[in-house]
User: What shape does this take?
Amino acid sequence: MNIKIRNKELSWLSFNERLLHEASKKEVPLIERLKFLGIYSNNLDEFFRIRVAILRRLASIDNLILAEGEQPVEVLDMIEKTVVAQSQWFEQIYNQLLKDLAKEDIYIINEGQLTKEQGAYVTAFFKEEVRPRIMPVIIKKSQPLPTLNDDAIYLAVVMAKSKKEEYALIEVPTDILPRFVILPSKDHKRHIILLEDVIRYELKDIFYMFSFKTINSYIVKVTRDAELDLDDDVAESYVKILTKSLEKRDNSELVRFVHDKEIPANFLSLLLKKLKFDRDDVIIGGSRIHNFKDFMGFPSIGNKNLYYNPISPIPNPDIRQGVPYLTAIAKKDILLHFPYQSFYNFIDLLREASIDPKVTEIKMTAYRVAKNSNVIHALINAARNGKKVTVVLELRARFNEEANIQWGNILTREGIKVILGVPGLKVHSKLCLITRKEEKEQVHYACIGTGNFNEITAKVFSDQMLWTANPVITKEVCKVFEFFQRNYKIGRYQHLLVSPFTMRYKMILMIRQEINAAKNGRKAAISIKCNNLVDPEIIGRLYEAAKAGVDVRLNVRGMFCVIASSPEDNYSIRSIGVIDRYLEHSRIYYFYSEGKENVYISSADLMSRNLDRRVEVTAPIYDPDMKKELIGFFSLQWKDNTSARVLDNELTNKINKQGKNPAINAQLAFYDFLQSVRKKG
Assistant: This one.
């Protein structure tokens, strides 16, 4: 199938650029704008670790052409040019934010701007907290560099004496100490210094035994290939494979080198030679500050107007105090919207199930859980109370592998059955199944979500979770868990769409039904909200639908490979992406279906990996009121003219302005909508 699609890596960079747009918006509170820069930086690091690393591997294959029609080397070149351009804008935004912070009497200063009192404070802080934690490495031309950590920044130090220079590296210990040090200040002013500048202030003290005339330092940083190569060797457990892969990760291939552009050319050349970088590698010069990801944790200082107004979670009208959760679910389906409603409802449900005498069993999938997960502790408590507990733990949740191995060991010690994924498939579905003995029958209660069972990310990720006791749904959730336990038992699904077995086929079938309706002159509509839309076959079907007259609307946060309009092919697809205070993470699929309005929530994006190489679950919403809620959610996002960007062919990221309509922020409007539903309830 020859389908015109956009390069997914470049579309992802366009998504990340939308974070820079938010950081540049004066309407966004000042400290939140700094945090958007941090999110942009963190995203970019992960992009190089994964996407660029994969492209570099593909570039070694002769005459390889990607699905989008380019060679990997061409894409890598476009990526570097795009990142360099974005980095320049990034610096402009940051410099403007420094000026705006100064207007609020907040100053980020460096080692050369300290007062005498602040200098004394920095010296004392350095001696007590910093010096014991830094171990300088002297760089010698005859010796290789030590392995540089992927998630760290280094001070590259130059000590000059007449014609001779000495070089050293110091890892800035941001994994142990805070990146931001708040200094004593006067006159209601607040001063902050970065940890690397604390070290810079004391460089002479660190290298006192060297006789030098001048000493200077420059930040450098490397990014490594983080992709795991897993062989499904039946003779070796996943735990052993992953442990080996994690050990290799520290020594994996370098994919990017970032440096202070003021670093001397001869020193830069020496570092690149020792790191085995060449001209074809990604080498980016920038400002003296790197690892902006730490700005996501910028200190909470200053007036309230510098932050988003806090929003209190709204009680769900179907959950009433004093009424057991399982009783409420048995009465009717419940749909929760995070973070507008509290994720702690789910933890309370698990806690209730853990002590309910009639509950016999709890099963759950775990992909990314919180560091000190209350969800896991509730499951442990259930096991201690005699419940049979099974956890399907996906060890290959990228960057969470080590934590998941540790959780697996803890759960096993507590007598919980741990299933370590499925050979050849990644378990990405978000499922919980509670079994209760009621009047001599086993009754099942299911929770099906679009996001992880993680109480921390649920405060900032916009997701949905369905709670249901509908036997046609719970019976099929049981089949999914049977597949986890016995991989040969695939099961048949009439209601759930389950990857890799039925989701692709049924999605295409529903698109075809809309096409047929449109060709016969009847109303036809498809609305899709997801994080990534890159699968060529699905995109081709959506082109076909748009050409047939189906009203196709796409709301995609991240990678977007659709060519939204094509005069020569006579179609146009309305497409937006929303970036705002909450991360739009939910996947919702809508089909008009001759007026039946089929609505689904899903753990799956429309990517080949989600449809073909992962276990994903997409659940139908049957309750009419819940359908209205989700359709209303869609509608508000389409009306958003403050944070939604039009995804046009050029990916200009223009705000979705709609004439002279009053400003509508979809996230705040949906919060107000849920408030009104609660009052009616």
Q: What stands out?
A: Residues 228-238 have pLDDT under 50 and may be disordered. The chain has three domains: 8-306, 327-491, 498-680. The first strand starts at residue 106 and ends at 109. The domain at 327-491 is CATH 3.30.870.10 (Endonuclease; Chain A).
